[in-house]
Structures
1.
Amino acid sequence: MKVYTYLAAFAIAGLSISEGAAQSAIVNHGAEMRLHKDGQMGFHADFRNDGEFSENQGLVGFYSDDTPLRITGSSGIELFDAEFAAPLGVILENDLVINNNGNLIEGDVQTARNTEAPYTLKFQYDTFYTGESDVSKVDGFVSFQNKQDFTFPVGDPNRLRPLTINASAVNPSGVCAYFPEDPNAPVSLAKAYNTSSQAEFGLQVSKREFWYLQADLPSQVTLSWDSRSEVRNLSTDTENLRVVGWNKATRHWEDLGNTRTEGNLASGTVRSDVFNPGEYEILTLGGMSDATGSLSVLELDNYFLSPNGDGRNERLIIDAVSEAPNNTLQIFTQSGALVYTKENYQNEFDGNSNTRGSFERGKGLPEGVYFYMITFPELRQKHQGYFYLSR
């Protein structure tokens, strides 16, 4: 319900209306403003909160038919019930906490996508929301406090792309956002997440999208896909789809499992095994097994490398790459750590790591035995073997 509040009430409550270049803004100048039970208040202009606006009961609505609304200020806002009906969006430049119900009627709640202390729409304790859809969701960050199970109503400007978390106990906190971006070169984030850097051979990683998730306790997560996710590039069978995560410590993508899938290759969901979200920076969809399981395997002779500048055995030479430049090489230690990966390998490996993990990137690997795999998708072959690296 849209409720108009008179200027006389603003003055009593410590509010004022300031005139901007585009529209008026309602400002709380530091008063302790509180909405009592069954009370209703509607904002039809920008709202800046520089005072106390918490311990509220009743409903606060944000409404605008023809312009975005901005919620700003130096103090956070805590509401009981809130509803959002602004087709061009409600832009959060302040934290907004909901203690009972958030009604997403029309238009997105938008936040910046910077993960350095982002503003969020937060749901506490037993709070819930309704109305989430492709045209009413959170385009940015959602957080919660003290919940065991929660579905984040996140997405991009055009699509709802939710993530569900099911924790082993009540999670003290969690935060999530969806990014319709290539992890290799994100637009919103300063970091990059090399989809060729996998902890397991044969793991395919989506280049279409990813989710940022942080939470405190071991959990399962459920990710969704739609036609734009192009999961056919990851697997031809939904049973082989996976949740995958970028490990903060090893700087590799890891398979986080598949305990249940629903849907088909056009749309559906996949649920992970239990893992600790705090160990991973971002999550996305992946595929396993069928992308490489049908390839014929050729066991090659072992190699000897001695990149010491004498002109002999300086690089890992695999003759087939000259005829099949569409390939992927991966090199692992005996313990399984990925130390080198290269798409379209052309015999460049000279004993130096190019991944972040156990060894410094760009530095020479220590002497020892290493395992390599090179995949030729067009030939339906993968070659594998060992080599000894001498210094």
2.
Amino acid sequence: MNNTKLLSFNKTLSIAFAYVGIVTGAGLATGREIVQYFVSFGYTGIFGAIAISVLFMLFGKWILSLGSLYQSESHMEVFEDVSHTWIAKILDWSLVFCCFVMSFVMVAGAGSNLQAQFGTPAWVGSLICAALILAVSYMDFDKVTAALGIFTPIILIMLLIGLVTVVTGPDVNWTAMFAQAEALPTTLPNISLSVINYLAMCLMTGTSMLFVLGGQIVGISNAERGGVLGGFFVGVISLITTILIFSKIDVIGNDPIPMLTFMTDINPYLGLVMFIVIFGMIFNTGFSVCYSLGKRIAGEDDNKFKKVMPIIVVVALLLSLFGFTELVAVMYPLLGYIGILLLLTIAIAFYGARKHIAQEKGVRGKLFALLLKRADDNKDFTAKDAKHLDKLAADSYGDDNSIVEELEEVVENLDDTEE
């Protein structure tokens, strides 16, 4: 594998892990969400988890590629280009509302997680999570991306361990478990609407940050592949989590953090690792919604961003005191219904932007080739090449200087790997 392909693969994997980190805290981390959206429908919940895998792959590709195309700093930069003004405003306020709601739901989830593991008051875990969100928000964005993805491989390993335990352990009476699962309460009417609502809820939570993430990716192909791979990972996590909860639904069906209890029953040390992973995944989403909300309010004003973040985090901490389980039951379906408009807009936007995305891939590919040539002392970079480079930069959807600078950084990184 040459250095260019290696960098591309590493970037794709980093994007995929970050994608998982952004959306799983809201929809997967504790298992409580899976109970409400899939498990409570009995065996049909398995088909719902499979369907959601495909949808996450599609929408991951679409959102990240649109973000990369427009080099977006916030969701509003994309919506203004792909939809009518009034739709853009509705979606903007909806996502702002969602980020606001999920900020305190996730902080509440962190408190509930710590309470379940150590018996501490819920506000202690919420305070720790809030402090971490504020601290990380001032870090460099590349470091933030790495932090978002750090728990993805760990959760995959943990779930595989759980799956092996179920397969190799005592026989499970799946028929009885499915029947018992159907008796659990849910606020959703059927599995089809539940799948759409779940996808919409997760993307309402993650789209703002995913557009920001996509805007930091200069290679549209990397963005697309990262979205598809990330969606696949989310699907695998959703399906395995659903199966694991079904296998012990009689024990953990009403548990506030069922996956923590599941792993602790296997081994207390696994439970401790799962506690850390769940806390990290909740933090990922909590950070994502707070960060994207701060960016939406502050725009490109870094000083304003630094001033508004403490306010957002403190408000989230105070509102988290309402309790995690209660907030999930009420707020998640509400956000899901609001998010259906978001799903339609993204699908229509990507369909309309397909040609532009294909053209932009060609433009950036040629820009990259010219910048490689300019950086190579063994090649003659002519005045004609320089003129061509300027024209390509002007033709790009992104800001002329920004696109060139981003690609120059890729070239420099490539040179570093060759040394």
3.
Amino acid sequence: MRGIMGGFYRVSEWIMRLSAINILWVICSIPVFFMLLTMLASPEMTVDVMLSSLWIIAILCPFTLIPATVAMYGVARKWVMGDTDVPLFKTYFRCYKENYKQAMLGGLLFLVIGVLLIVCIRFYSSQTNALRWLSFLFISFGVVYVGALLNFFSLMVHFHMKLLQLVKNAFIMTMGQPFTSIGILATNAVIVYISTRYTFLIPFFMGSVSAFVTFWYFYRGFQRLQDKAEKAKEKAGELEEAEEDELNAPTKL
């Protein structure tokens, strides 16, 4: 009975942690969520109005949603690395303040890349000749782009790098670790799908669960890379020692 109560207490603790951080994420991104709710609740939503609303939301994201998401990943990093009792509000807002400028600039850069991808996809998909097939290539780039954006959040809270290094490494990690990237994208797709079916999950769990799972994948992949690098270093050291032994070995006259 005590074990059951202990398990129930731990589960309730995690529910409180996830919901608290998710609520902070929503509050700090309130302009984006307000625009989304307004767009979805409008009874006279035309294609033109929807597109203009999406443009406004996209412009707001680098200034609100992206820094708020980075702060949420900062808390998720603590959890994944074993610091589960970290003070939530203090850690969230410290990470928000420390990373705001870089997160905003990174969000603007990803916004530009995303707009270029959308323009290319729309242009090539409207063609009637062989160029139409290029749209599928840019759609593939779009999938990589989403994975790189998620890795960008994890990299920003885990390393101190310049902005362009973060963006470059985010794309390199996404393409260099395809199985990890597929896991990240598939899991996030499931989280978003379930959250859109049961919308009460969006303000309480969608973002925080996504951040926790994504950073867990990222951290596990990074640890594998570290293990490979250490093994390669050990092997190189052993080869150097063997070469030195051969050079220092006495030669026959």
4.
Amino acid sequence: MKKLFLLLFFIASCYQISDAQNTATLDNEKVLEYYQSQRYAEAAQYLQSIYKDGVDDPKALTQLAYANLMGGKYADAEKYYLKLYTQNPTSLPVLFSLADINTRRGNESKAKSYYQEVIKIDSANFSAYKKLAYLTKEDINNKKISYLLTANRLNPIDADIVFDLCEIYFKTGAFHKLKQTLEPALKADSTNLRLLKIKIPLHVAEKNYPEAIKTGEQILGYGDSSTFVLNNLGKSHFLSLDYQNALKYFLLISDKSADNETLLYNIGMSYRGIKDYKNAIPYLQNAIKEGVSPKIATYYGLLGDSFEMTNKNDDANNAYKKGLQFENNGSLLYNIALVYETKLNDKKNALTYYEQYLKTIDEKQQPKLIIFIKRKIEELKK
């Protein structure tokens, strides 16, 4: 795009453009100097000092539009491009520029409309289909897929289009189409890391673990040791029952990123695979901890209270006790004791839970509460 407008500028610079209402003459060398030093805002300011607001000469408008666009003055650039658009609504460079400006200004709907005008004029315009696919944000969207398919048909080796299309194929389980789309692009660029990364989960999905490992090691050789690559290598070794190598890659991930449920589980299972049960235990315990919401005890507390409000007292206590499995929560112990004492008339169990609750109270912070619970315990023992 930039080269196109520079070419237009040089064509325009062959002419002395002047406004009948303005005696100032354009200094083409000065404008060229601004462009070469990338001082586009200054170029725009200079051009605006030469041309009147009502200028309609297409060469002048092109210069004004381009300088403002490159100088980041998008509103002014759009104003001049719209004048050019009015003069020639089928100009592809003008349509692309208007679409680009609207994308930058956040008006993606308007940008799409300009790209759609492009493909009405030129139904084989790859760049327009690529831009339309990019502007259609939803992954699994019929329009997006249609734009990607057309762009891929027009240029089957464009890595960006191939990557986006393959991601959709992977998510929808269309592995045969994924391979057909990926192979030409990889043949054209065999070291493209984005495309190579698609191969690993594809091989894993096809249970072709040796190829997944081979591809993963190839990517590592190119210097990419990202979590994605290490995780897929670990998974491939694990599914090949090579637990020692699986563990090696999973542990590399744990060294460079925060632990999570799946990673902890994989490490624990890899330790089990090599019969190192001692090391498996803490990882599996932490996997359980990560897999459970820290608020689950509170949720069970609220559930129990809701049962109480409907006089389902046994259900209430069962919910409170379930919450205790996730957190030794003092309020849950107190609620259980209270239900046993006041609603189920079960002094023995009430006493047991009051005693447990007493152990959770901080003497320094809640001395009066300790006195109150101790009195309750004494009363229940009578």
